[in-house]
Amino acid sequence: MYMKFSICYNNNFDTLIDCIVIGIGESDVFFKFDECNKRKSKKYILKIIKYGDFQGKIGQILLLYKIPTMVDKRILLVGCGETNIINQSDYEKIIIVCIKKLIEMHVKNILCLLINCCVLNLNAYRKIKFFIETSKEIIQNDEFKNLNIFWIMRVIKNIILNIENLKHLKNAELALKHSNAIVKGIIRTKNLCNMPPNLCNAEYLSEKSKNLQLEYPDLLNTIIINQQEMKQLQMNAYLSVSYGSLNLPFMSIIKYNGNINNQKRPIVLIGKGVTFDSGGLSIKPSKNLDEMKYDMSGAASVFGIITTLSELRLPINVIGILAGCDNMIGKNSYRPGDIITTMSGKKVEVLNTDAEGRLILCDVLTYISRFNPLLVIDIATLTGACMVALGATYTGLMSNNKKLANDLIQSGNVSNDLVWQLPLHSDYENDLKSIVADLNNSDKGLAGASVAACFLSKFVKDYPWAHLDIAGTASSIYKNKGSTGRPNKLLCEYLLNQSKIFI
């Protein structure tokens, strides 16, 4: 279900419209559409408001037919709250309610005036970009459903976003370009995450990575590190996690070369790609175990972000790592009590085989130092503790660099893909002490997200580094169950800024 968006200025379009979407506040009508301003039609709509059939509350909707003097079939009134200025969260609610209603109505071509309302801290570019991204995120993966003709008929064909000010036209078109690329990446992230684990394993991730290079051959170079090569590199921590599975581990390295001439140092994105996490011998309970297919959300996010970069051809260099494997139980499973020599040479005592993500990432963090990175961001569904602390609203952020952390927080605020910084304090290292090795891979039950980040920090070299714990934000167990596509919007916003594309 792929709806298309287009921009028009001052109602200048040649498409037959099935429905007009108009935003109305509780006290003011803030739209300027010629047909609605005709005396009879405006009087009719204001009468409906006066009689109390429509109060203009946030997210309230009312569908009208056969409006006097109007040629269009329908008008959808959407409530926008008490004032002419709404916040970003309410704007999101308005968009979601509107799009879901339009899908339900079976309409094909829509003229939308909602982008003309005032949203706090959002200019024309950001309003349009946010509208398109939010609208398209409602799309669900239907690859494994047999869709009937009734469902196909519900697909929205085109949404025309009308802008009233000509000076906003250029930024509106740029917003359309950027949001389409970002949403393409988000959809790919979602579809990859939502794949069943019997089909999506580390080898599947590697094949997807190679196919991505074929799609953008002038920008991408993909390298696959297999099990034998990992052994030669002495990536023993990564390998230990994979030994219980029949599926072999593969680390996919996708190099995006958008700034070849200047040869700038790359930004490295590392995605945890555990395509199913049983917990290993420290086995997880059966409740919601099916959701452990989302333990590769970090890798899927990196895949989607590289897609977006390639669509936009941003003038930066980025290396994306998809660290793929399974954490299963088998005759060769690693055990609590094992001592593993990591690629860095540090020895780790295994206390919990369900704390596998940090073992994978520690070897990858060592491996990527060969790229002399400008900065490194790892993305992982790492700890349940982060989910308990922050829920499904904020992604956990821990960093060794204040500027990087602040930039990510700002990007999260602008994109509404929020992050919250958690402490990375030396006191947490006490939980990592081992009497038989350099450190252990677990915590003592307190501050689990920060302890896990402290573990990773032991393998970070002299470069700015941020850790994004997406355990609570990568997927949803509620009505729209499945991948959320986070933190793609956050990181795409950050990378747009790194590309010096400011609006």
From TrEMBL:
- In the Enzyme Commission scheme, what number(s) does this protein have? 3.4.11.1, 3.4.11.10
Compartments annotated for it: namely: Cytoplasm
Name the residues that bind Mn(2+) 1. 277, 354, 356
Q: Which UniProt keywords apply?
A: Aminopeptidase, Cytoplasm, Hydrolase, Manganese, Metal-binding, Protease
Q: What's an example GO BP annotation here? A: proteolysis
The segment(s) forming the Cytosol aminopeptidase domain are 352-359
Active site residues per record: 284, 358
HAMAP family per the record? Cytosol_peptidase_M17
What is the protein name stated in its UniProt record? Probable cytosol aminopeptidase
UniProt lists the gene as: pepA
